[in-house]
Amino acid sequence: MIRKQDTILRVAEPAQLMDFLIAKMGGMARSSVKQLLGQRRVKVGNAIQTRHDYLLKAGDVVTVSSGRGNSQLTHPKLKIVYEDDDLIVVNKQPGLLTVAATPGSSETTAFSILRAYVKKQNARAGVYVVHRLDRETSGLLVFARSQELQQYMRTYWRDLVQERTYIALAEGVLEPREGKITTWLTEDKRHAVVYSSPVDDGGDIAITNYKTLRTSADGQYSLVELHLETGRTNQIRVHLASKGCPVVGDRKYGHGNESSPIDRLCLHAKVLAFIHPATEKTIRFESPVPKEFSIPLAERG
Q: Which one, of 125, 194, 190, 165, lies nearest residue 268 by Cα?
């Protein structure tokens, strides 16, 4: 939405966003431009842009908000990495549910944080869950700004997603070091657990491709990259456990914190790339691997 106090700038030739704003905003100082970007007051097209080195192309429209009526999301467990009129992409920290487990719950979730954020901008605005991450899994999540878009993305999620990469710190060493895990998963909702079968037992087929990136010198831990072909509940956690190498810190399918030097589930949604349902262009996001995942891998095998 464009307000009367917004400044609308049209790009005539390619330029970095910082240089463009300095030239067009009356000789504004670099520090002031950085402040505008940090306050999420600059849009390119309909997407908020915070990178000073973002490359503009001819024909782009840059909108600079005066800041009146703006709100910013400041929460230690949730950070917005992309926002436009259709979607919000966030980076979630461990310990935060995507959405409440039971209706009417007062627990703080990624959904409740974002809902409060958008309603500060517009009381009639809403956000809608597209997919979920487990409470203790960190990384990238997508929310839609309308129910229609939510339904569309849920229906065509497998077609829209171009890349979905997770990083896990696993116990032991997977053999082979690289491969594909295919099992059939059955969810027991009563006990909140998922069972895996190597043969078709009527469950949902689940396929995970994995690659070992590093192992510790003593073979106690492995850093593993995982690509999902399906998106079943607890899929990665169950699949790694089925290989005898559960995710470090997994209380449900592994040994929990009894053998873990890190006080968390070591699973992170690192990369998410998907076709934007409005622009039909692929957008890609990458979240840094948590530093604590490297602690047991100080010595490389």
A: 165
AA letter at 282: T
- Residue 43 belongs to what domain range? 7-64
Q: What is the mean pLDDT of the chain?
A: 89
If asked whether residues 84 and 14 sit together in one domain, one would say no
Instruction: Report if residue 277 sits inside a domain.
Output: no
- Distance, in Å, from the CA atom of 30 to the CA atom of 73, rounded to the nearest integer, reads 24
| CATH classification at residue 148 | 3.30.2350.10
Chain length of the chain: 301
What is the DSSP code (8-state) at residue 120? H
Which residues are the active-site residues? 134
Query: Would you state the pLDDT for residue 94?
Result: 95
| Cβ atoms 223, 192 nearer than 8 A | no
Which residues on neighbouring strands pair with residue 91, listed in sequence order?
A: 79, 140
In tens, the pLDDT along 1-59 reads 444 457 889 999 999 999 999 888 766 778 878 878 887 889 898 888 888 899 999 99
